[in-house]
Design brief:
With 369 residues, the chain is mostly beta strands. The chain has a domain of 173 residues: Immunoglobulins (Immunoglobulin-like), CATH 2.60.40. It is elongated.
Length: 369
């Protein structure tokens, strides 16, 4: 009469493939799910407990996966989604040691090339994996999740079977979330229009030879990412802070831009051309200064009373009208302020002449007609 064994998957633990059977570090605590990057080695260890007081010899523990609840599929050396992957840290068939908690009775780790570790075909154990009645073991598998067969944020589960047949019970089954980064663009083509992200960064920078197409301003008002290619930036709409356009570092001159809300006329030009005439801004400054060799033409006064901006060129400024106020003096004996009327000035002069005639001898006096 045979004694049928009964096996339970008690718990699990994710592991990094960065050391041997005892020194490799753990991804998370025992029984904790995790997020796993695609196309990278990782290891997973299971605790298997026999509970019917019946032993089992030559046990082969085969791992299976279940992607997005689509059903359980055997993992192998050629399987899709989850596939066995060679480890540089531990040989296929190496014996395992007791490292998890939750098992009881005699521990069996296998030996030789049929121990509890697998890196070749998702089958751990074999001729030396003889599990005693009420004993336990810890098979461990080194695998990868294949990027070609999954999408980012999908979930999958893993479990141990008895050579492909589900064991009696599963107390704790791991659920792994797939992490698949977006591919990096390294070609020479242009980036298509991108929506602004929540942090306000408009688009990723482009280092290729193509020009960036028009992009919408982001929420912080920064118009575009910096352009380091050989093409010129096309005209961009002003962002919400009133900055007209991104700076140009090319050899061409900036074309005329609309005034922004702060009243600055145009962006500065670093090209070899000159700036054309610009309208006065709202602060009342008439025109920008001229540093050329030509003369400034007459400008109307702005609201602060400044006639025109200064000229540092070689030409002369045209004449302007004089001011209406001033203080003047009359040469002679007395001074007269410029605010007196002409009749006051005549009266002072007549009084001065009478005093001089009284002081003169009679024979020197003359009658002035």
């Amino acid at each position: 009469m045979t004694c049928p064994a009964s096996f339970t998957q008690v718990t699990f633990r994710g592991r990094n493939d960065n050391g041997n059977e005892t020194t490799a570090t753990w991804i998370a605590t025992q029984g904790t799910d995790w997020t796993q990057a695609v196309d990278a080695n990782f290891r997973i260890r299971f605790e298997i407990q026999e509970g019917a007081n019946c032993g089992g010899n030559n046990k082969v523990w085969r791992m299976q996966y279940n992607l997005a609840s689509a059903g359980w599929v055997d993992c192998s050396a050629t399987s899709s989604v989850v596939r066995a992957s060679a480890s540089p840290n531990l040989a296929d068939g190496a014996a395992t040691t007791n490292q998890l908690t939750g098992g009881s009775g005699t521990f069996q780790g296998g030996s030789g090339t049929t121990g509890g570790f697998d890196e070749g075909d998702c089958n751990a154990g074999g001729a030396t994996m003889d599990l005693a009645a009420l004993g336990h073991c810890e098979p461990e598998f080194c695998v990868q999740i294949r990027s070609a067969d999954v999408t980012d944020a999908q979930t999958l589960q893993l479990r141990v079977t008895d050579a492909g047949t589900a064991i009696a019970s599963y107390t704790d089954t791991p659920t792994i979330t797939v992490s698949e980064p977006l591919p990096e663009i390294t070609g020479t083509g242009a980036l298509s229009a991108q929506a602004a992200d929540v942090t306000g960064a408009g688009v990723s920078s482009s280092t290729g030879t193509g020009a960036l197409s028009s992009q919408a301003a982001d929420v912080t008002g920064a118009g575009e990412a910096a352009w380091t290619g050989t093409g010129a930036l096309t005209a961009q709409a002003a962002d919400v802070t009133g900055v007209g356009t991104s700076g140009s570092t090319g050899t061409g001159a900036l074309t005329a831009q609309a005034s922004d809300v702060t009243g600055s006329g145009v962006s500065s030009s670093t090209g070899s051309g000159t700036l054309t005439v610009q309208a006065a801004d709202v602060t009342g400054v008439g025109v920008t200064s001229s540093t050329g060799t030509g003369a400034l033409i007459a400008q109307s006064a702005d609201i602060t009373g400044t006639w025109i901006s200064s000229s540092s060129g070689t030409g002369a400024l045209s004449s302007g009208s004089s001011t209406v106020s001033g203080v003047g003096t009359v040469t002679g004996g007395e001074s007269v302020s410029g605010t007196r009327h002409m009749r006051q000035l005549h009266a002072v002069s007549a009084n001065h002449r009478r005093k001089r005639r009284r002081a003169m001898p009679i024979h020197d006096r003359r009658i002035n007609l």
